[in-house]
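Dock magnesium ion; give full complex structure.
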Amino acid sequence: MAILTVRNLAVGYDRRSVLENIDFEISAGDYFCIVGENGSGKTTLMKTILGLISPVSGMIEYGDNLERKQIGYLPQQTDAQRDFPASVYEIVLSGCQNGLGNRFFYSSKQKALALKQIDKMGLTNLKNRCYRELSGGQQQRVLLARALCATSRVLLLDEPVSGLDPQMTEEMYQLIHGLNEEGLTIIMISHDLDNVKKYANKIYGVPSEGSNQEGGMQVC
Ligand SMILES: Nc1ncnc2c1ncn2[C@@H]1O[C@H](COP(=O)(O)OP(=O)(O)OP(=O)(O)O)[C@@H](O)[C@H]1O
Ligand SMILES: [Mg+2]
């Protein structure tokens, strides 16, 4: 059963499309990768799926009782974000924000969930450290733990291995693969075609103007 269906979608800003004619279907348990050139609209597409940006036109449908707030998100990192002055624990716990409802404070259940995800990502000994003092690979694991606080169903990852060395990249792919094996649906943007082909069961190529790159979905 499709967990997410995208039909004839156009995404962009101020009603101007940066990417059009997007069609794909994602099923529960898929490892779905989005590839394409810099500036082709991949992040814009991901933000539209999350509801952070309205579609210019077309349709996004959630299936299998999936709600938007059940989607975990690891955003593409900018240098400014890497400098964020908060502890590992605080950042991971902020992933529980969707579940706060009308309350101002995190519940003990949410705090326990944050600690569980910190442990799962092998970060327990770093939990009180300041995020900006961590290595790039450790920071990405913190953001993965944060995204996991929001979901046990669908994870959206925007270039999770960007800037990591080969060993850290491999570790990150192993963690994501393990989560997919546990049943999480993975939707990932990556420029790393070798690993995309190794792990993904569906690949969506974003079409880009001015190059020969054709868009569309490929089932591996
Ligand atoms: N907030 C914004 N307002 C207007 N235009 C934007 C905004 N953010 C991005 N764009 C433009 O939309 C286009 C697509 O950007 P997007 O960030 O989605 O590309 P991308 O495929 O994720 O690129 P990269 O591989 O470099 O991350 C670019 O031309 C960009 O300049
Ligand atoms: Mg991007």
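Observed: Residues 78-152 form one domain.
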